[in-house]
Amino acid sequence: MMKTLFLQPPSFDGFDGGAGSRYQAKREIRSFWFPTWLAQPAALIPGSKLIDAPPAGLAMADVLPHAREAELVIIHTSTPSFANDVKVAERIKAENPGVKIGFIGAKVAVQAQESLERAAPVDFVARNEFDFTIKEIAEGRDFAEVDGISYRDGAGAIVHNKDRTILEDMDSLPFVTDVYKRDLKIEDYFIGYLMHPYVSLYTGRGCKSRCTFCLWPQTVGGHRYRTRSVEHVIAEVRQIKADFPQMRELFFDDDTFTDNLPRAEAIARELGKLGVTWSCNAKANVPRDTLKILRDNGLRLLLVGYESGNQQILHNIKKGMRIEVAKKFTRDCHDLGIKIHGTFILGLPGETQETIRETIEFAKEINPHTIQVSLAAPYPGTFLYDQAVENGWLDIANAELIDDHGIQIAPLHYPHLTHTEIFDSVETFYKKFYFRAPKIAAIVNEMIRSPQMMKRRLREGVEFFQFLRERHAA
């Protein structure tokens, strides 16, 4: 087995490369997701090491000693971080010319040829699901024998092997918890709406929804929800409890954990027996009866993608959600005491100044506990990307989706709505949602009741205003 280093490279200060879907960027409040997509193949390779540089505050000088000793380096990349990741690969190759370097992630999964052409030090990229692909390479197999990769042969020509068969037996994957315990410090990972410290993992891959903007289902995970067995999930939860007694919340990072309601209820009942406080991603259509079962068995918060308050925009992006259903779902959550972190996207096809105002009013009406407002990001491999290129909504200058500081830009524009108008609407959205007397009173009350929450909200406030200053300076 080759000595293998899995690396989330040093990047912009505060850059969350581990985030899934459309969020690889510096965010308004410093946040870091667990690098689960790296930890999963790392768990398959004995003696491997995982370095997640951004949350650990590591620079290249900290990473290079480990890279010098490695025979294989696997780097997780994305469209926003690709240029930086290639520079990291160049540094590693200069220090260790004999090392094999591979890139994984949605970016290279859908743009294998282009990625290799732009990344001279990279020997191969892994397409689609890459867990067992990387394991086979680490075992020393010839590149020509490994399904699911594109690589440079001995003459430097780029070769594309056949696709790897999609993984069906999700229980065949080992626990990522072993890698978390071995290589990560869970206190380094912080999400504003989750209790700290938290731990996140996947119980399945794929999403039945067809949202045109969402990255992973369209590039790697697919649109079938392939799941681990309830028993397999609960066994890992037991290990997490044992390995991380300081954990205050467990987050299931499946694209839509509630895609399979009977399974979600079954997992919840087992979590209830273990006394675990947990949260998950959900669509805004979960029936009240199911919500009650989840709440009664430890569910604290749902992360819900509302995206827009305009029904036509939801149709445009194939969200498959009715505004009235979402409102009822949200009322049910409020009644049951389930907190919601609502996410919204500005700049989707069909957006106007009027629909932006409509979405802000919708958010104020349903009143999630917290919100996140993102800019529509057309990642390569998504329907939205193809649509934007075809219609001239995306300029090449904005195709990396972030600016020189790692802050998300507004890459799309329309004849009736400019980049600047979309970009500025994010700040307007936050201010109109949070700077309301009832919301301010609720936040102050929360802070008074919890010294830990007071410390947390004050820190978040400082970070938020610093983020706004950086946006204005960009």
Task: Please give a structural write-up.
It contains 19 helices and 15 strands. With 474 residues, the chain is α/β, with parallel strands linked by helices. It has two domains: 4-160, Cobalamin-binding domain (Rossmann fold), CATH 3.40.50.280; 191-377 and 422-435, Aldolase class I (TIM Barrel), CATH 3.20.20.70. The strands form three sheets. A seven-stranded mixed sheet has the order 2-1-3-4-5-6-7, sandwiched between helices. A six-stranded parallel sheet has the order 8-11-12-13-14-15. A two-stranded antiparallel ribbon has the order 9-10. Helix 1 (36-44) crosses helix 8 (177-183), helix 3 (60-69) crosses helix 4 and helix 12 (288-296) packs parallel to helix 14. The longest helix has 23 residues, at 451-473. It starts with a strand and ends with a helix.
Oligomer: single chain
Radius of gyration: 22 Å
Neighbour order of strands in the largest sheet: 2-1-3-4-5-6-7
- Provide the β-strand percentage band: 5-15%
> How many alpha or pi helices?
19
| CATH homolog superfamily of the largest domain | Aldolase class I
Given the C-alpha coordinates, what overall shape results? globular
Write the layout of secondary structure elements.
Blueprint: E1 4-8, H1 36-44, E2 49-52, H2 53-56, H3 60-69, E3 72-76, H4 82-95, E4 100-104, H5 106-110, H6 112-117, E5 124-126, H7 131-138, E6 149-152, E7 158-160, H8 177-183, E8 198-201, E9 204-205, H9 215-221, E10 226-227, H10 230-243, E11 249-252, H11 261-274, E12 278-282, H12 288-296, E13 299-307, H13 311-316, H14 323-336, E14 339-346, H15 353-366, E15 370-375, H16 383-391, H17 419-434, H18 437-449, H19 451-473
Parallel strand pairs: 1-2, 1-3, 3-4, 4-5, 8-11, 11-12, 12-13, 13-14, 14-15
Antiparallel strand pairs: 5-6, 6-7, 9-10
